[in-house]
Each structure stands twice: as structure tokens, then as C-alpha cells.
Amino acid sequence: MTDQPPEPRHRRFPRTVYRPGTEPDARFSLANERTFLAWIRTALALLVGGVALKAADLGLHPGLRLAASLVLLVAGLLAPAHAAIGWARTECALRRATSLPSAALALTAATVIGVVGVLLLLGSLLA
Q1: What is its membrane topology (predicted)?
Q2: Does residue 30 fall inside a structural domain?
Q3: Would you tell me the crossing angle of helices 104-126 and 26-55 to the nearest 10 degrees?
Q4: Which of 3, 10, 95, 127 could bond to 21 as cystine, CB 3.0-4.6 Å?
Q5: How far apart are CA 39 and CA 77, in angstroms?
């Protein structure tokens, strides 16, 4: 009889996510991680867009350009935290075999992009 190494989930972080329930199919956990990483890329794009909008002289109304830039920057700062919470909630749901949480971050992102679009449209009309 051979000694088996301890199950790896005892060493995984955060324990509040990995301790409860049973190990889900790896494909689902990896899909959850890919979704998290996609939101991290989205957050980086929002930050870059906010900086570029502020730095570039696009002939927009200055106040509306600043407002659109700030909306993008704030969204880019908040998106990683929201993505991490969503990742943890989804991983816990997979481990407990319960319903998956809602995709609130997608609705939030769509709203932010819509607001920025309106600000840019107004900024170009008022310039």
C-alpha cells in the first residue's frame, strides 16, 4: 500500500471557496477562471480607455470628456473586485452543486459603456 499525498484542496487559497462541497469537473472551474481573466482584461481596457480619453484631444466638450474618462476609470478600478467576487461565488456554487449566481457584471458593463457612449455623443455635439 502506497502513501498518497494529501488532497491538494487543503492547500488552496482562499479556503472559504475551496473548502465546502466537492471538487467540480475541472472544465467548469477552468471556464470560471477564464471568465475571471476576461473581466480582468476588460478592466485593463477600461483603464486604458479612460486614460486615453483624457490624454487625447478629440475636440470634445472638455467637461463631458472628463466625465466619460472618469466613468471609464472608476469602472476599470471596480471591475477586478467585482470579477473576483463573481469568480468566488461561481466556484462555491459549482462545489455545492447549487444554482449559479446571476451575471450582474455583464449588465453593469453594458450600462457603463452606454453611459460613456452618451457622454461622448453629447461631447461631440456640444464641442
Answers
A1: Multi-pass membrane protein
A2: yes
A3: 20
A4: 95
A5: 12
User: Residue holding cell 471591475?
Assistant: 79
CA atoms within 13 A on the CB side of 104: 12
C-alpha cell at 100: 449559479
The pTM assigned to this predicted structure is 0.79
As for how many domains the chain has, the answer is: 1
**How far apart (Å, rounded) are the C-alpha atoms in residues 114 and 38?**
20
Report the alpha-carbon distance of residue 102 to residue 109 in Å, rounded. 14
Residue 71 belongs to a domain: yes
What residues make up the domain containing 119? 24-126
Identify the pLDDT of residue 13: 72
Alpha carbon of 127 to those of 68, 114, 120: distances in Å?
14, 20, 10
106 vs 51: CA distance, rounded Å: 22
Q: Does 11 reside within a domain?
A: no
